[in-house]
Design brief:
single chain, alpha/beta, two-stranded parallel sheet, binds iron/sulfur cluster
Length: 391
C-alpha cells in the first residue's frame, strides 16, 4: 500500500504537478489550494466544485492533516497557545497573540533547536528534528480555522481573517530548516492560500549568514535578527553560532538583505540580561555597531528589547525596568527606533524563550504526551483542550 500524500506538504507548484500526475488540469490545484487554505477543508467530499471522480481519487491517495493538538490554552490577556504533537515524543508550540488591529501567530520550524542560545529554554532541550512543510504551514492552518471556529467566524473569503501576521520566532532556527521553511513561506504569501503580504511575515534568525543571502533571492520576507550582544566576545557566549558567523559578517548580510526586503529596516531583537548585556557601554557599542563605526556597514534598523524570561538553568536574570528604559533611551537618543516587548501570556508560559513550557528534556515532553494519550482514552478525545478565559 502506498503512503498517503499530505496535501499540506505541497506548495502551489507541487500541487499543480500532483494534479498532473492524477491526470487533472492545473486549475484543479488552485481549487484545492483554496479549499485547503481558505476554507480549512480536510474532507475531500466537502470540496463540492471538484469532480466526483477527482474527489474519489484524492480520498484514496491523499490526506490533509496538521499536527494533532495536545493542549490548547488561552491566557487571561487573550494569548492562545497550542502544544502540538509532531511524533516520536516531540512536541512544538504555536502561539497566537491578539492585538487591537492585528492577530499575530508565532510558529515553530524545528522540534528543539541546535543553536543553544544561553538565554533560551528551547535551546536547552537540544535538537530533535526539522519540521516538514505540512507541520509548519499546518500550524497556521490549524490556528486560523480553530480561531474562526471559536469566534463563530465563517471560513473562506466572507469570514474575517484572524491571523494577519506571522512570525517565525517559535522553536527552532528557521534558516537551519531551509527548504520546508521557504515552501511554507510561499504558501503564506500565495493569493490562493493565505495571501499575506511579505511585510506581514517575519522570519527571525540567529544569524545563519549564507542562508540570509539565499532567502533574499528565494522569498524575501521581513527579517528579524536575534542579536542580543554588542560585541563578538559577548555574543560568542550568548549565541554560539556567532563563532561561525561573527558580527561583522552578520551586519554585512543584513545590509545585503535589505536590498531585497519588503521593509527598509532589520529588526534586531535584544534580550535584556541583568549585568550581562544591559549597561550604557553596551548600548553605545550597539549604536557604533549598527551605524557602521566598527568596520562593518551601517544597517538601517529597529531595536526590540525583550525582558528576559528567567528559567533556573540559565543562571541569568532579567534586567530591571528602569535599566531597560535607560538602555532604550540611549538607543533612541541616537535616532534608533526602539520598542520594549510587552510580555504576553506569562500565565501560560507563552512568553518568548519559554516555548515548550518550563525547561524540560525531551523525555519529559514524551512523558506528558503519554499521559495525555492515557487521559484521552479514559476521558474522551477532547481531554486536554482546556480553554481558560478569564473575564
Ligand atoms: S533563541 Fe532561537 S536560535 Fe537560539 S536556541 Fe532559542 S530557538 Fe534556537
Amino acid at each position: 500500500m502506498t503512503a498517503l500524500t499530505n496535501l499540506l506538504d505541497l506548495d502551489p507548484a507541487q500541487l499543480t504537478a500532483y494534479c498532473g500526475e492524477l491526470g487533472e488540469k492545473p486549475f484543479r490545484a488552485k481549487q484545492l489550494l483554496r479549499w485547503i487554505h481558505q476554507f480549512g477543508a480536510h474532507d475531500f467530499d466537502a470540496m463540492t466544485d471538484l469532480a466526483k471522480s477527482l474527489r474519489d481519487k484524492l480520498a484514496t491517495r491523499a490526506i490533509i492533516a496538521a499536527p494533532a493538538v495536545i493542549s490548547d490554552h488561552t491566557s487571561s490577556d487573550g494569548t492562545r497557545k497550542w502544544l502540538l504533537d509532531v511524533g516520536q515524543g516531540n512536541a512544538v508550540e504555536t502561539v497566537f497573540i491578539p492585538e487591537e488591529n492585528r492577530g499575530t501567530l508565532c510558529i515553530s520550524t524545528q522540534a528543539g533547536c541546535a543553536v543553544n542560545c544561553r538565554f533560551c529554554s528551547t535551546g536547552k532541550q537540544g535538537f530533535s528534528r526539522n519540521l516538514t512543510v505540512g507541520e509548519i504551514i499546518g500550524q497556521l492552518w490549524m490556528a486560523e480555522f480553530e480561531l474562526r471556529k471559536s469566534k463563530g467566524v465563517e471560513p473562506g473569503h466572507k469570514g474575517e481573517r484572524q491571523i494577519t501576521n506571522v512570525v517565525m520566532m517559535g522553536m527552532g532556527e528557521p534558516l537551519l530548516n531551509y527548504e520546508p521553511t521557504v515552501t511554507a513561506l510561499k504558501l503564506m504569501l500565495d493569493d490562493n492560500a493565505y495571501g499575506l503580504s511579505r511585510r506581514r511575515v517575519t522570519l527571525s534568525t540567529s544569524g545563519v549568514v549564507p542562508m540570509i543571502d539565499k532567502l533574499s533571492q528565494d522569498c524575501a520576507v521581513a527579517m528579524a535578527v536575534s542579536l542580543h550582544a554588542s560585541n563578538d566576545t559577548l555574543r560568542d557566549g550568548l549565541v554560539p553560532l556567532n563563532k561561525k558567523y561573527p558580527l561583522r559578517e552578520l551586519m554585512a548580510a543584513c545590509k545585503r538583505y535589505l536590498e531585497f526586503a519588503p521593509r527598509d529596516f532589520i529588526t534586531f531583537e535584544y534580550c535584556m540580561l541583568d549585568d550581562v548585556n544591559d549597561t550604557d557601554v553596551h548600548a553605545r557599542e550597539l549604536i557604533a555597531l549598527v551605524q557602521g563605526h566598527t568596520g562593518g556597514p551601517a544597517v538601517p534598523c529597529k531595536f526590540n528589547l525583550i525582558p528576559f524570561n528567567p528559567f533556573p538553568e540559565s543562571g541569568l536574570k532579567r534586567s530591571n525596568n528602569p535599566r531597560i528604559k535607560a538602555f532604550a533611551q540611549i538607543l533612541m537618543d541616537a535616532g534608533i527606533v526602539t520598542t520594549v516587548r510587552k510580555t504576553r501570556g506569562d500565565d501560560i508560559d507563552a512568553a518568548c524563550g519559554q516555548l515548550a513550557g518550563e525547561v524540560q528534556d525531551r523525555t519529559r515532553v514524551q512523558e506528558r504526551m503519554q499521559k495525555m494519550t492515557e487521559y484521552q482514552q479514559k476521558f474522551g478525545k477532547n481531554f486536554g483542550r482546556i480553554i481558560e478565559v478569564s473575564q
